[in-house]
Design brief:
The protein is of the alpha/beta class. It contains 16 helices and 16 strands. The longest helix has 23 residues. The chain is globular. Bound molecules: D-serine.
Length: 425
């Protein structure tokens, strides 16, 4: 790069990623081919519309790329329809809301302080101003059990037009069948926001909500799915006529979604990004991706167990997925942000997060959220989890000694260097 300042920052970020361990559960490392696709000249092209139905000329290659990305996404998730254009997870969710709902309609989603996501109606979002969000949550924060009885009562009372299953801070499994039963009873469309676990679903390590009768699944493509930053919407059913505004019926959902993504809320798709999605979907279709998905879960369970042995108190007592939430004040009398800052000093990257019924505020919450997707991509196995738990414990105990923290950091750097980034190959 000619700009020396930016080149230095790029180099510094590469060193940070290489010399540390990435434990944020929503991050991952992409392959060299995904990086190549992102940096390709497809970024130069405008392609408003969909394959075969574009507004500008010169689409002979973009059409093929997008068609391939769509076919691969459908195969990966057993969907009838895929829209690969959403720029990220938030626009994917908003496109679904706008495709199906009218302003003032009701959405039933997980309590944000019990693990639900910002885009599921946090008061600060534009969606919360347009739609009425009602909530389900946990019946028991000790086990993480969702209160399905209460969810049913709320659904019968509030008559939501959309029910969302999905989370960004929940370490347990959802009972998709219960969602489907409740949704069918009240006539709601069922949307699974699988942004966090899409790669584990694609790798068949976790069940697929579409198999249970969910109508729509949204996801990002850059978390466990290990693709470029981006969004994806999958559904059952086929597009009738994307050029004609259809009635809002379940059969028309794919058409409604396509029309809402473009021209409803986005302009030209980012074709370099769609090329990179097509690359990542092919990688996720390979047998070795199934091994990866299984290993993410094995590492997560092992790390949870090693952390418990070191005295960390985990929210819900463990994990069923890639994500672990630590209750920091109950473990070591510090808050989640302080823990995040200590771990930054030794090269372990995680993020602070609210825990259910948190007594602390969101910017300085009690929880520390971590996960195993990125370290599993680097090649770490169960036996390596004890090291991470040990570094975490030691660094908290040594938090007032810069010298001790520096010593731990050297150990982390030396260890991390043994695990190349996938883009090195
Ligand atoms: N920021 C993502 C996460 O970390 O879970 C969700 O949007």
């Amino acid at each position: 790069m000619k700009d020396k300042i930016l080149q230095e920052l790029l180099d510094a970020e590469e060193t940070r990623q290489r010399d540390g361990l990435e434990l944020i559960p929503s991050e991952n490392y992409v392959s060299k081919d995904v990086l190549t696709a992102l940096g390709s000249i497809f970024t130069n092209k405008y392609s408003e519309g969909y394959p075969g139905k574009r507004y500008y000329g010169g689409q002979e290659n973009t059409d093929k790329v997008e068609a391939l990305a769509i076919e691969r996404a459908k195969e990966l998730f057993g969907a009838d329809h895929a829209n690969v254009q959403p720029h990220s997870g938030a626009p994917a969710n908003i496109a679904v809301y706008q495709a199906w709902l009218n302003p003032g309609d009701t959405i039933l989603a997980m309590r944000l302080d019990h693990g639900g996501h910002l885009t599921h109606g946090a008061p600060v979002t534009s969606s919360a101003k347009l739609y009425r969000f009602v909530r389900y949550g946990l019946s028991d924060v000790e086990t993480g059990e969702i209160d399905y009885e209460e969810m049913r009562k709320v659904a019968l009372r509030e008559k939501p037009k959309l029910i969302i299953a999905g989370f960004s801070g929940y370490p347990r499994s959802l009972d998709y069948q219960k969602f489907v039963d409740i949704g069918n009873e009240v006539g709601a469309v069922l949307m699974a926001d699988m942004a966090h676990i899409a790669g584990l679903i694609a790798g068949k390590a976790l069940p697929n909500p579409l198999d249970f009768g969910f109508h729509i699944m949204t996801t990002t493509t850059h978390k466990t799915l290990r693709g470029p930053r981006g969004g994806l919407i999958l559904s059952k059913g086929i597009v009738s006529n994307p050029l004609k505004a259809p009635e809002k019926t379940i059969e028309n959902l794919p058409t409604l979604i396509d029309r809402e993504v473009f021209p409803g809320m986005q302009g030209g798709p980012h074709m370099n990004n769609i090329l990179a999605k097509a690359v990542a979907f092919e990688e996720a279709l390979r047998p070795e991706f199934k091994e990866y998905a299984k290993q993410v879960l094995k590492n997560s369970k092992q790390l949870a167990s090693d952390l418990i042995s070191e005295g960390f108190k985990l929210v819900t007592g463990g994990t069923d997925n890639h994500l672990i939430m630590i209750d920091m004040p109950s473990s070591f009398g510090i808050d989640g942000r302080e823990a995040q800052e200590i771990f930054d000093k030794i090269g372990l990257t995680a993020n602070c997060n609210s825990i259910p019924d948190d007594k602390l505020p969101p910017f300085r919450p009690s929880g520390l959220r971590l996960g195993t997707p990125a370290i599993t991509t680097r090649g770490l196995k169960e036996k390596d989890m004890q090291k991470i738990a040990d570094w975490m414990k030691r660094s908290i105990e040594s938090r007032n000694s810069l010298e001790d923290l520096e010593k731990i950091r050297e150990e982390v750097v030396e260890f991390s260097k043994k695990f190349p980034l996938p883009s090195d190959n």
